[in-house]
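In line with agreed milestones, the collection of sequences with tokenised folds has grown. A representative record is reproduced below.
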Amino acid sequence: MAVADRRATSAFWLYASHLLGLFGLAVSNGLLALALLAAPWTLRQRFAGWRRGTPLLAAAALYLLFLLAAIAASSDPLASLASLSEFFALAALPLAVLSVRGERQTRRLVDLMILAASAFAVHGLVQYFFGYGGIDLRIRGPFSHYMTFSGVLLVVDLLLVAQLVRPTARPAESHPFWRLLARPLFRWSALALINVALLGSLTRSAWVAVAVAFTGLALARAPRLLAAYLPVAALLLLLAPVPWVARALSIVDLDDTSNYDRLCMAAAGAQMIAEQPLLGIGPDQVKIRYPLYRHPTAPRFRVPHLHDTFLQVAAERGLLSLVALLALLAVPMLAAWRGLRRAERAGSGPADLHLGVMAAVLGFAVAGLFEHNWGDVEVQRMLLAVMAMPFCLREDGSDEPA
């Protein structure tokens, strides 16, 4: 193997490894740091390729610029300095654009993400045998919180669903490992494991996000699937465990304590934004200053965040940062839409990958209305990999070895 090929292979696996290592955040951090440190060697002949990701990287730079401004304007700048860790987190975007090249490598990255999510799902389902599963002790896989578990599974689930809804011919694989991951049996098994684990997590935000994203996929690709909604919903109500049904019905119950608590947090967040609309009250200041804005009838005196990604960013960092975040999410959506249109006009190409990007980002955004998933590092890492995918795909269809 030539030196250039070895570098390309190393770049791909070093980048992919930090996603495979998400079962332990310290492991993932270490692997991401290693990939960044090795970049001068592994990406030696690729740095000119950053131009492919210019729109995405420009949006990320704008987001980080407003983060710096929010820290400077913070009510406690020293405490807000901890948010500088987002520079390290978002370094995964240019790393992905440079490390993953072409359709073959992008598909392999998705396959590895599906494999990792399946393993996480199995871990979560095994926890049922150790007393987990109830509302007070939910399955969470290898993660410290059930929201992290469901958030990671959600992103990968929608990538996988898009591939199954829009089957697309993929480049032939010579290695048995990649051929195994490309088989329908593996993909349908992964789909079952991931979705059962998502249901078992009792995470309503993920359920709503899957429903909205799947509806979007059905409208775009197979409207006749919408006719199956009512019978499938009836079947789930009949066969699902009682706690799952009760949890689903609680989504629209305003007397539910957690629902009311979110309304109180929204009111507090609105007051924070009104006080400091452009640059916010300061990164990492919401959890500290929440009691000052708390509604008198709110169930909790303190909260770690406002349980809404967009409200949280606007309150902490201001409306400028919120606009930058929305732009950062919109750029890959638009690039994926254009890629999908090109593939459909040409009658070939990775249409399923582009559709998966759109579904995953949409699902993440919907879930973000009910949970601060952007602030969940493991979920953010999976999302950043998805966001980079439209810019990793080459229009000429060529790719590098992995």
Observations:
- The mean pLDDT is 91.
- The two ends are 11 Å apart (CA to CA).
- Residues 319-346 form the longest helix (28 residues).
